[in-house]
Amino acid sequence: MLSSKVSSESHGQDSSYFLGWQEYEKNPFHETLNPSGIVQMGLAENQLSFDLIETWLEEHPEVLGLKKNEESVFRRLALFQDYHGMPAFKDALAKFMAKIRGNKVKFDTSKMVLTAGSTSANETVMFCLADPGDAFLIPAPYYPGFDRDLKWRTGVEIVPIHCVSSNGYKITKVALEEAYERAHKLNLNVKGVLITNPSNPLGTSTTREELDLLLTFTSSKNIHMVSDEIYSGTVFDSPKFTSVLEVAKDKNMDLDKKIHVVYSVSKDLGLPGFRVGLIYSNNEEVVSAATKMSSFGLISSQTQHLLANLLSDERFTTNYLETNKKRLRERRDKLVMGLKKAGIGCLKSNAGLFCWVDLRHLLKSNTFESEHSLWTKIVCEVGLNISPGSSCHCDEPGWFRVCFANMSDQTLEVAMERVKYFVEATEMSSYGGHRKRTMWDSRRKSLINKWVSKLSAGNCESER
Ligand SMILES: Cc1ncc(COP(=O)(O)O)c(C=O)c1O
């Protein structure tokens, strides 16, 4: 009945990444209304700094009132549909992106194509650079949404570059060459490499050395280099963020037509609902084709108007970026500490809205089946929706992505208490199946009771 493309599996919706969200939707945690529900830790949302944007909006009522110098801009905005975007908005976005990169790179607005978020930007880049059946190499583990965004409608294939925990998931020359060879053996024409810097799901930024290696590799093979820098403003710890554009400049490749950057304000500003993203490229042909294609996913004029005003306020952006990073760092620390108390470690992170957590010691065997049953238990019994490594195409069973910026401090505490009790109950294997189970159930009940009584005593702090 439907087209083969629409019915194809490559959308990836059966991945546990999306299934976990469905479980969460059926029984979402709420501090008072559903304290035994599932805590959503599988969603890379940044809710830590909304108050800063809300304060700015309160101080600038004319912007939401669609007024400028006391005159209405409503009619102008209502009619605006130029797919090149509003110059004032692009200027403000270019300055914001340069600021995130310590002003080491400048952005030329004529090389920018606006899109409805990075989802649209990534797909558009694939449409521009590759034909169905061509391939892009991507360091794995990678963002589960790429199966949908890069492959589904374009027909492009993803070939993972296998990165391993033993060296902190570094991108190496050997891994790059091996992926390239593997693609060739599969008769795939490799059109480029796509990285996410900082990495989703690892929460680490790509080092200067890795970027140097990547550019040397892509230019030696005469293929494209795409860098999704959607988390660039979240780098809260050293090493600081280095964009591929900065390294390209150092290598005198700053005008290279095969280097492209994708960005959006979904993570850094926590505004995924605004659908604001872009492609940045030195390649006029890519810019021209992508601009034509952007008709399928333009950014609404009132969103451009609002963000043009917000992002051109230098005092706001400076304070926002600093404060947001500080809050993310504190949150990461809180998560790491909570996990440590339960005897759980994670990859050392310096960016993003999540940690890459090592639960290998809780697996019954070193298999993805075992990872899946642990994940099911964590979602359905412990009540935490986290994303298993397999959904991110990780090669080693037992790693999980755990998000920390989409909830209140109190909810994170509840999650950490649940983890601790779960690990204790699991480790008491000598108690045997039934007894162990009963113990976990009663611990979980006591945890919920404790939480409810804490709330009724008025101890609950409000959400930040
Ligand atoms: C690496 C990466 N790219 C793209 C996206 C999609 O972002 P957007 O909301 O801007 O479409 C995400 C969202 O999680 C992501 O993590």
TrEMBL record:
Protein EC: 4.4.1.14
Substrates-to-products reaction catalysed: S-adenosyl-L-methionine = 1-aminocyclopropane-1-carboxylate + S-methyl-5'-thioadenosine + H(+)
GO molecular function: 1-aminocyclopropane-1-carboxylate synthase activity; pyridoxal phosphate binding; transaminase activity
Pathway assigned to this chain's UniProt record: Alkene biosynthesis; ethylene biosynthesis via S-adenosyl-L-methionine; ethylene from S-adenosyl-L-methionine: step 1/2
The protein's required cofactors: pyridoxal 5'-phosphate
PROSITE patterns: AA_TRANSFER_CLASS_1
Keywords recorded for this protein, A-Z: Ethylene biosynthesis, Fruit ripening, Lyase, Pyridoxal phosphate, S-adenosyl-L-methionine
Domain Aminotransferase class I/classII large, residue spans: 40-419
GO biological process: ethylene biosynthetic process; fruit ripening
Family stated for the protein in its record: Belongs to the class-I pyridoxal-phosphate-dependent aminotransferase family.
Annotated function: 1-aminocyclopropane-1-carboxylate synthase (ACS) enzymes catalyze the conversion of S-adenosyl-L-methionine (SAM) into 1-aminocyclopropane-1-carboxylate (ACC), a direct precursor of ethylene.
Protein name: 1-aminocyclopropane-1-carboxylate synthase
